[in-house]
């Protein structure tokens, strides 16, 4: 791990930068830093948001001055080492892969010169690390995707993407937890609810979790509560020029 860099981004907010590049091997360090900072700040901590290479620390200025907050960060990370004490959970997410709910499936298959089933097999062939939550509540950025499947974001984002849509962008993959705009390439849909007030912490996924996707049939998707309404009937579907 690099020497942590502490950046001031507001009167009550610091960004702690541990690494310069994205790598799954960094996750144990990020989780260890998350735990150490939470313990160091205690009741003075308002929020802590881990990301790929950084942690955002939002603290209470009624309890800490800026120099004191920076000192707590340095003390918390001094001698930091990764441990397996807080390994993430593993999730298996069922997905119905079909062009009616995953229109970019066809384009990716054509680009690679393979069948839809081969694209699906590659997407389901590995576990993905949850690096960060953001964009929308419960939206987990996961990676790293098979390099051959890496696909640029759409030039023109859709105005409406159905909840449960499974998508890829560059070497990342994600699931849209709620109906929202989005510019990622959609390849399928899951019946699993990813966000709700009935879940601890509201989100199914947390940084450090592992996720594997599992292909299911349309019938199984519907039996598990999935909505098979084609994406084109829900909102915007980019034209070939927009994709």
Automatic annotation (TrEMBL):
GO molecular function annotations of the record: ATP binding; hydrolase activity
Enumerate the InterPro entries for this protein: CT_C_D, Cyclophilin-like_dom_sf, PxpB
Note down the stretches annotated as region Disordered: 222-243
Q: Which Gene3D superfamilies match?
A: 3.30.1360.40, Cyclophilin-like
Question: Locate the Carboxyltransferase domain: which residues?
Answer: 4-205
Q: Which Pfam families match?
A: CT_C_D (PF02682)
Name of the protein in question:
Allophanate hydrolase subunit 1
The species this protein belongs to is Chromohalobacter israelensis (strain ATCC BAA-138 / DSM 3043 / CIP 106854 / NCIMB 13768 / 1H11) (Chromohalobacter salexigens)
């Amino acid at each position: 791990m690099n020497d942590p860099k502490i950046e001031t981004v507001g009167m009550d907010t610091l960004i702690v930068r541990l690494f310069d590049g994205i790598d799954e091997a960094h996750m144990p360090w990020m989780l260890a830093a998350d735990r150490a900072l939470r313990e160091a700040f205690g009741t003075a901590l308002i929020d802590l948001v881990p990301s790929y290479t950084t942690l955002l620390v939002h603290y209470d200025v009624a309890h800490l001055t800026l120099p004191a907050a920076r000192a707590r960060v340095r003390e918390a990370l001094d001698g930091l080492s990764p441990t397996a004490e807080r390994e993430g959970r593993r999730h298996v997410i069922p997905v119905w892969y079909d062009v009616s709910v995953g229109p970019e499936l066809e384009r990716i298959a054509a680009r690679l010169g393979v069948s839809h089933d081969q694209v699906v097999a590659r997407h389901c062939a590995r576990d993905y690390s949850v690096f960060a939550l953001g964009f929308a509540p419960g939206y987990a950025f996961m990676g790293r995707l098979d390099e051959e499947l890496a696909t640029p974001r759409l030039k023109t984002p859709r105005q409406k993407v159905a909840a449960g849509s499974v998508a890829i962008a560059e070497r990342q993959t994600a699931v849209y937890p709620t109906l929202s705009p989005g510019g990622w390439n959609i390849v399928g849909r899951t019946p699993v609810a990813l966000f709700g007030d009935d879940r601890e912490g509201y989100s199914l996924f947390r940084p450090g979790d592992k996720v594997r996707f599992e292909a299911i049939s349309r019938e199984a998707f519907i039996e598990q509560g999935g909505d098979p309404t084609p994406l084109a009937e829900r909102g915007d579907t980019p034209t070939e020029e927009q994709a």
